[in-house]
Amino acid sequence: MSAGGAPVPPPPNPAGPDILRTYSGAFVCLEILFGGLVWILVASSNVPLPLLQGWVMFVSVTAFIFSLLFLGVFLSGMVTQIDANWNFLDFVYHFVVFVFYFGAFLLEAATTSLHDLRCNTTMTVSPLLSDNQYNINVAATIFAFVTTACYGCSLGLALRRWRP
Fold this sequence. Notes:
single chain; mainly alpha; 2 domains; two-stranded antiparallel ribbon; 2 strands; structural constituent of myelin sheath; MARVEL-CKLF_proteins; MAL
């Protein structure tokens, strides 16, 4: 509480390289790392189900780029020059990305679960996913879950800063 009785908002994440010494900064780095792995793994599976995996690719690429920008804004110190409620923006950003990534994780898990589904391709019946595609999609599903968990942890930390 300040002298006037109004609550004092908590400070935003530190600017500059000090952001990397916080839990929030560490989680953003993990989000970038694991999100990039999801992107690479889904792309390397040749996207056998574009209707499902197209959304996974969109979310992973978009979140990767925006997380890099988000970290760059803090690393460059621009948060001290831009007058905004960074605690609220941090919360909103991580909430939106958490919801989108959770959906992407579910779609990637659904794609992986279709491994044994047989489809008729002209004259032969073959599995929907080859063994290699299945293995890649299992790894992509695991990393999508880990990335979703990292965004969830960042969301919790942002909520704690925004609403102490």
